[in-house]
Amino acid sequence: MSKLTGTIASVNMTTNLILQRPSTTVVLAMSTDGKIADVKRSPARFSSEADQAHLERQVALADGVLFGAGTLRAYGTTMSISTPQLLEQRQQQGKPSQPVQIVCSASAKIDPELRFFQQSVPRWLLTTTTGAEYWQKQAKETYFERILVSNATAGVMNWTEALQQLATLGLKRVAVLGGGTLVAALLASDLIDEFWLTVCPLVLGGTSAPTPVEGSGFLEHQARRLQLLSAQTVGQEVFLHYRLQPR
Ligand SMILES: NC(=O)c1ccc[n+]([C@@H]2O[C@H](COP(=O)([O-])OP(=O)(O)OC[C@H]3O[C@@H](n4cnc5c(N)ncnc54)[C@H](OP(=O)(O)O)[C@@H]3O)[C@@H](O)[C@H]2O)c1
User: Fold this and answer.
1) Residues near ligand 1 with C-beta < 6 Å?
2) What is the pLDDT of residues 25-74, one digit of tens each?
3) Sequential DSSP letters for the chain
4) Residue with the nearest Cα to atom 37 of ligand 1?
5) Which residue ranges form the domains of the chain, and what is each CATH number?
């Protein structure tokens, strides 16, 4: 169970403004050699039923689920909640049955034929001005309940501002379901609070196979440090729960 309960407040030292953002927990399964998919970037189907149940529990704790367009293109669907106890738990907490599913895409070029658009979940798109224009030409309300436009410079999103938008829209807790490109961008902006990593018993290898954190990487002296909150073995898998240490 995560320790995080609500929005995170921080002070912008330049403006002295108090900034609110949702708490963020990355949830990923990886091979023993640290890959989240094979070299063909196939959808990762290598984790156990126990891990799928763990993922669903993490999704059920969230107000919103955030993932990159690469992840959506790989899977074509998203994790929705179907376990009756989890649906009941959300109802008792006064939450909607499903958290909002937020796809992040600068280009917004997402195939409207994906099965994701038939799933019974609320869908938002987080994109750039150009991306939003692309969807204005479609019957957008069929696909997305809301299109959020993040201030972006040269296609690079301002994540602090994007997460503030999510807090303004009432999201207190966000589960980040990958992929490594999105996680790297959030980590670089200091916007990740916790990691859940499931280490699965297989080796995928391959220098181009994706890992939990892509991007340009951090030199060792700049690397973010983690505090281990728990480590649990279930069958052949190890469930690791970390909190980011303050800089
Ligand atoms: N094992 C697991 O638990 C797990 C979980 C999730 C994913 N995966 C695997 O991970 C792979 C996908 O990961 P990925 O790193 O390639 O993709 P990703 O992070 O899911 O998505 C990358 C795309 O998302 C958008 N995006 C992400 N960060 C952005 C940013 N900072 N600013 C603007 N747009 C941003 C861009 O979309 P546009 O190109 O549309 O602009 C970008 O091309 C797949 O192979 C999938 O199977 C594994």
Assistant:
1) 28-30, 36-37, 41, 43-44, 67-71, 74, 104-107, 109, 156-157, 177-182, 185, 210, 214
2) 999 999 999 999 999 999 999 999 999 999 999 999 999 999 999 999 99
3) --S--S-EEEE-TTT--EEEE-EEEEEEEEETTS-SS-TT------S-HHHHHHHHHHHHH-SEEEEEHHHHHHHSS------HHHHHHHHHTT--SSPEEEEE-SS----TTSGGGGSSS-EEEEE-HHHHHHHHTS-HHHH-SEEEE--EETTEE-HHHHHHHHHHTT--EEEE---HHHHHHHHHTT---EEEEEEES-----TTS--SS-TT---GGGPPPEEEEEEEEETTEEEEEEEEPP-
4) 105
5) 8-244 (3.40.430.10)
